Amino acid sequence: MDDINGPQSDYGRGNGKFLPLVPAQAPLRADAQRNRRKILDAATDLLADKGVDGLTMDELARRAGVGKGTLYRNFTDKPGIASALLDDRVRDMHSRMLQGPPPLGPGAPGGERLTAFVDAYLRHIAGNLDLVLLTESSSPKGRFDRQSYPFWRRHVEILIAEMWTATAPEASDANPSDPVRTRAEAVMAVLSAAQLDQWLNRQGRTLEELIPQIQTIVSAIAAA
Amino acid sequence: MDDINGPQSDYGRGNGKFLPLVPAQAPLRADAQRNRRKILDAATDLLADKGVDGLTMDELARRAGVGKGTLYRNFTDKPGIASALLDDRVRDMHSRMLQGPPPLGPGAPGGERLTAFVDAYLRHIAGNLDLVLLTESSSPKGRFDRQSYPFWRRHVEILIAEMWTATAPEASDANPSDPVRTRAEAVMAVLSAAQLDQWLNRQGRTLEELIPQIQTIVSAIAAA
DNA sequence: TTCCGATCCGGACTATAGTCCGTATATGGA
DNA sequence: TCCATATACGGACTATAGTCCGGATCGGAA
Predict the structure, then answer these.
(1) Is 1.10.3720.10 the CATH number for A1-89?
(2) Of A176, B75, B97, B183, whose CB has the highest number of CB atoms within 10 Å?
(3) Local structure of residue A29 (DSSP, 8 states)
(4) Cβ separation of A140 and B141 shorter than 8 Å?
C-alpha cells in the first residue's frame, strides 16, 4: 500500500484488526475522495483493457478525467497505484492470517502455519504477478517499501520465533539484527515475485510442482 | 555481462577457462572497438565523478564523444553497461572459483566451497552494490538476464549436488525442475543485491555480522 | 589503388515517469 | 450566507531511456 491516507483502505490504519503500520490520517476532502475512487476504478479498467504495459500515467489520468497532478497527489508513484489495487485483493488474506481458522490463522503450531502461509502467499503472488512485479519494480527498494512487505515479514518472523521457542511470539520484536528476523527476510527473498516469475514464466514450471520444493526450503530456513 | 560481442571480455567466450555461456562472435570493426573502449572508459570516469545517479546515457555519450546510437549498438541498455563494468571486476573471482586454491577453488568438499563462495560473493556484491543494483534494476528479470547470474547459480548448483551425492557433479545439469537447481536458485535469491542493500543500507547492519547468519541459512537450504 | 557492400555512427525523435505552480474549490467559522 | 484559508486540481514542463534511419566509414576483393 503506497497510497496516501486512503480512507478506502483498512490496512494499516491501526484499528486493531491489522498491524498498525501507519498512524491514522486526516480524512480526504470530498473531491479528493471522489478522484481517488475514479483513479482506482480507471486503473482497474485500463488494466483489464490493455494489461500492465498499457497502464501509463497519462492514459490513466485521461481515463479517470483528472490531471496528472491529481494522480501524484493521491499516489506516490506508479508502483503505488499497483499497491493500492493489490491492497483490495489482499485484505481478505490478511484477515484470514490474523483471525481465520488454522492452519493459516492462529491455533496451529508455527511450523504448520508457516507452511499454510507459504502456500497462500505463493498463490496470491502468482495470481497477481503483473501487479506485484509492477509494485516491486522501480528501484531496488521496491519490494521493501510497500507496506505489505513488513506485514508479511513480521508474520513469518513471529511464526519462526514460535517454532524456536514454543513460547510467546513477541520475543522477536524490534531488533533488526535478530537472527529470527534475518531468517524471515531470507524466506521472503525466496518468495519474491521476481523469483517466482523466473520459475513460472521463464522456466515454465508450475506452481504445483514448485510449492512442495519451496516448502522444504522454507522449512529448512526456519529451522536453521 | 550484457555487452555485445565484446572482445575485451574473456568471460563467456567459450575458451575453456570460463563456462561457455555464449558462442564466439565475429570481431568488431576497428572503429567500433575504439568506441567501445571510449564508452567504457567514459563510464568509469563518469561513475567516479558523479556516482550512479549521474550516469545518464546522454551525458555518457557526450563524454565518450559518440552518439547515443553508438551506445546502444555496443550495449543493450543501461544495465548492460553496468554489467560490462562489473565484468572486469569479477573476472578474477571467477577464475579463483574455477581454478584457484581451495576452499573457493576446487579441492575442498562442497560444503566448504559453498561457504567460501558465499563469503566471496557477498563481499563482491557489497563492494559494488551501486553497479549491481543498476544491473538488476530495469524489469523484474534484471537479475536473471545478466550472464553472470547463470554462472553463479550453476556454481552453487554444482556444489550442492556434490554435497548431496558426494559423486561427480554433472548429475544436476540441464533439468530446470531439478530440486538441486531450485535450491541453488533459492540461495541466489537470499544473496540478491536488493536484499543485501536492504540489510546493509536500510537496516544498517554490517557485513561481518550478517555473513555468519547468511552462511547458516545457505547451509540449511543446501542441506534441505 | 579503387570500389562496393556490410557495418557502424550520430543525433533528432518518441515514449513515459514524475515535478511544479498558478488557479479553483471545498469547508468551517463569523 | 459569506469569507478566509487550507487543500486539491490540471496540465504544461523537465528529465531520461531507448528507437530510428540517412549518411559516413571500414576493409576485403579485384
Answers:
(1) no
(2) B183
(3) P
(4) no
| Low pLDDT (below 50) residues in chain B | 1-24, 168-169, 171-172
- Compute the Cα dihedral for A172, A173, A176, A177 and give only its sign: negative
The C-alpha of B192 sits at a distance from chain A's nearest C-alpha, in angstroms, of 8
Which residue is closest, via its CA, to the C1' of D11?
A: A67
CB contact under 8 A, A214 and B141: no
Q: Which CATH architecture has domain B1-91?
A: Orthogonal Bundle (1.10)
Q: Which residues of A touch B200 (CB under 8 A)?
A: none
Residue in chain A lying closest to B186 (CA): A190
pLDDT at B67: 85
Q: Identify residue B176 by its one-letter amino acid code.
A: P
B209:A177 CB<8 A: yes
The one-letter amino acid code at A192 reads: S
* Coil, helix or strand at residue A3: strand
Whether pLDDT at A169 is above 60: no
Nearest to B22 by CA among B34, B5, B8, B7: B5
- What is the reported pLDDT for B167? 52
Cα A67 to the chain's mean position, in Å?
28
In this prediction, residue A12 has a pLDDT band, given cuts at 50, 70 and 90, of very low
- Calculate the dihedral angle through the C-alpha atoms of A106, A222, B193, B175, rounding to the nearest 10 degrees: -110
Q: Which of B123, B89, B116, B87 is nearest to B101 (CA)?
A: B116
A1-89 matches A100-224 in fold: yes
Domain boundary assignment for chain A: 1-89, 100-224
Q: Which fold has domain A100-224?
A: Tetracycline Repressor; domain 2 (1.10.357)
pLDDT at A14 over 50: no
Beta-carbon-side half-sphere exposure of residue A129 (alpha carbons within 13 Å): 18
Instruction: Name the most confidently modeled range: A84-93, A208-217, B43-52.
Output: A208-217
Q: Which nucleotides of D are covered by protein (CB under 7 A)?
A: 7-13, 15-21, 25-27
